[in-house]
Amino acid sequence: MTCIRFALLGSGFIGQVHAASLARHERTVLAMVADADPERAKALASRYGARAVTVAEAINSDAIDAVLIASSTPSHAALLEAAARAGKAVYCEKPIDLSLARARQVVEKVLPLGVPVTVGFNRRFDASHQQLRREIEAGAIGQIELVQMVCRASVMPPLEYLRSSGGQMRDQAIHFFDLLRFLTGDEVTTVAALGVRWRWRKLPNSTMSIPLLSCCGCAAARWRSWTTPGAPATATMSALACLARRG
User: Fold this and answer.
1) What are 53-71's pLDDT values in tens digits?
2) Architecture of the domain defined by 4-120
3) Which of 71, 197, 208, 214 is the most exposed place for a label (fewest CB within 10 A)?
4) pTM, 2 dp
């Protein structure tokens, strides 16, 4: 069985999650780790028997098949372009960039290169979400009229991560925009948002409520908080409910 040799760029909050997944999967090998903080890269690399290297070494190495970008959001676009130019397959954490124009520019540059690239919208691959989509497609619950999504983090990410993340809308809500499109097969046409920023925490919009409307008239309500307690201690909790009309 051929294993895909990965270089991980970024060894912070989400980088450590990806490192564990790459080390655990039978078809992937975590070969290299790079980070703006060399000591942090060394610590994570040593945990999984990988090598700590510079970003340039990781991207240009012939011993690497794919690059996983898990660095801070402002660095995603440039790293994605560089890895694709080097002929590497790329998994890039979302978003590509906080600027829509810059994200589109990256797509225009990378598409002609013909390398495999995916952005980290992982919720649609969750087994329970895939089962729900099959039920919806089979008509088991009727025509969807309302989707309600609730997500609470079990542990608040580090402030360093949150301050460069782009806030709830661009860092977390986009997961649920993608999930709504995946489940309903429809496109969102209208979005509104109400955000709360706790001054004492110095966080960008730590709690948000987001109503949406799709092309076919399906309404959705999405609520997300970084700071609300009560989620399971081991994972992020996502609750999704669909109200459907039969006939």
Assistant:
1) 999 999 999 999 999 999 9
2) 3-Layer(aba) Sandwich (3.40)
3) 197
4) 0.79
